[in-house]
Design brief:
With 168 residues, the chain is an alpha+beta fold. Helices cover 45% and strands 18% of the residues. The protein has one domain. It is globular.
């Protein structure tokens, strides 16, 4: 005869449910809270290397994109983000993040002292909202960009300038 401890099973089911809800929340993104600038970017980049769930958590929602980008860029950026996160499952970092550089949207817009960002950011500058910080970093021989901060949260959109066309 098999006996079951209902209270233990209830706890197990509760934990499984909580884990599933947590996984669903990570998959939908919403950003990760963190400090502005290079120290905060380094912390997030290290999490990208060590925790695969970090990538999904950094996916910006439509409301996040509205905080990061001007209205004319939100729709193409949303399409780009969905495609990017559908194709990529993470960031392949073999080494710790290094050579981290962060720039305020105002500097990107003026294209002044932003030598560590890809040239595509020049056409993205006018689409960034004030207060946005965009960062680039390296891991070994790989360069990454698109780590973005606004209002105390980090998001990741690799090469966001690719979403912007002359029509947007």
């Amino acid at each position: 005869m098999r006996t079951t401890n209902r209270s233990t099973n209830g706890i197990q089911l509760g934990l499984i449910g909580a884990l599933l809800l947590g996984a669903a929340a990570c998959g939908s993104g919403s950003g990760i809270s963190g400090d502005k600038g290079e120290p905060g970017a380094k912390e997030i980049a290290q999490k990208l290397k060590s925790d695969p769930a970090t990538f999904a958590a950094l996916k910006p929602s439509e409301s996040d994109l509205k905080k990061l980008f001007e209205d004319s860029a939100v729709a193409p950026m949303q399409t780009y983000v969905e495609k990017m996160y559908g194709e990529l499952k993470g960031v392949d970092m073999k080494e710790d993040a290094s050579d981290i550089h962060c720039y305020e949207s105002e500097a990107i817009k003026a294209w002044k002292d932003v030598e560590h960002l890809p040239g595509g950011y020049k056409r993205l500058g006018d689409k960034l909202k004030p207060g946005v910080v965009a960062c680039s970093f390296k891991s070994g021989s790989n360069s990454w960009d698109g780590l973005m901060w606004i209002d105390g949260k980090w998001f990741f959109v690799a090469k966001p300038f690719r979403a912007i066309t002359e029509k947007s």
